[in-house]
Every structure is written in structure tokens, then in C-alpha cells.
Amino acid sequence: MDWFDVIARILDAITADRRAEPEERERSRRLMVFTFAVVVGAVIVVLVLVALLGPPA
């Protein structure tokens, strides 16, 4: 799978989200928010570890 497939899947998910029922749309939105929070949390953890331990040699 390359970047074009990833982008196509994201666009498909967005258009499917518009056609979905309101409860499905809410569940999809919650999943996107959760995924975003996990990614941001992981970036913060990495930045804190680099700040504490120093950059890799």
C-alpha cells in the first residue's frame, strides 16, 4: 500500500461519513478524535523522552 491508497481510503471514509446515519457518523467522529489524541500523545511522549534523554547519538 502506498500513499495514494492511504489518501484514497481517507477520502472514501469522509464521503461515506456524509452518507452514514447520524449514530454511525458520531461513532466515526469519536474514532477519528481518539486516533488523533493517540497520535498527538505519542508525539508528546517522544518529545519529552528526547528532551530528558537527549537526542540519539
Structural description of this entry:
This protein has 57 residues and is mainly α. It has one domain (3-53). Helices cover 86% and strands 0% of the residues. It contains 2 helices and no strands. The longest helix is centred in the middle third of the chain and has 32 residues, at 22-53. It starts with a helix and ends with a helix. The mean pLDDT is 82.
Report the sheet-strand fraction.
under 5%
Distance between the termini: 32 Å
Mean of all residue-level pLDDT scores: 82
Largest β-sheet summary = none
Question: Structural class per helix/strand content?
Answer: mainly alpha
What global shape is seen? elongated
Order of helices and strands: HH
Task: Give the fraction of residues assigned to helices.
Answer: over 70%
Number of domains: 1
CA-based gyration radius: 17 Å
DSSP E strands, number? 0
Number of helices: 2
Indicate the low-confidence ranges by residue numbers: none
What's this model, at a glance?
With 57 residues, the protein is mostly helical.
List the SSEs and their pairings.
Blueprint: H1 3-19, H2 22-53
Key phrases:
57 residues, mainly alpha, 2 helices, 0% strand
